[in-house]
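#structure-requests
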Amino acid sequence: MNAERPRLPGLHPGRYAWRHLDRVGAAQLWEELTDWVDWLRTTYQLGSRIPGCWYRHPSVREELTALMAAHYAAYYCDCESPDLPTEEPIAWHTQWLWPTVERLTRNSDFSGCRPENCRFTTQPQPTLGGLADYIAADLNSRDGRDPQTR
């Protein structure tokens, strides 16, 4: 897996981009996420839907990180009128929380996990041979003109 940062002029990975975090950033995010997921699982009684081994499942960690970021966006404000009512908290529940929990329940392989034993293993996801040749052929089939000058 290539962990180099993509070359996107003017854009930088955010603090929730696990793939690009250094040791310090990852330690901070782990601390924050584990506390938040503990709160989430306890508050909504999600232990059977998000088992205690959630952190061993990389896709679940990514989904829960995104859910946490959405929660912050809904419940925290950097505004001059923090007492004004907003619909963001209910939107977080209807648009983000429950759809994410349903997706985790449906798509995450928790089937082999037990309260004291997680059987999750990362499986290689091979790419069909010939990728480099395919890309080379695709690039060779294109003209060299700048798409913005066409």
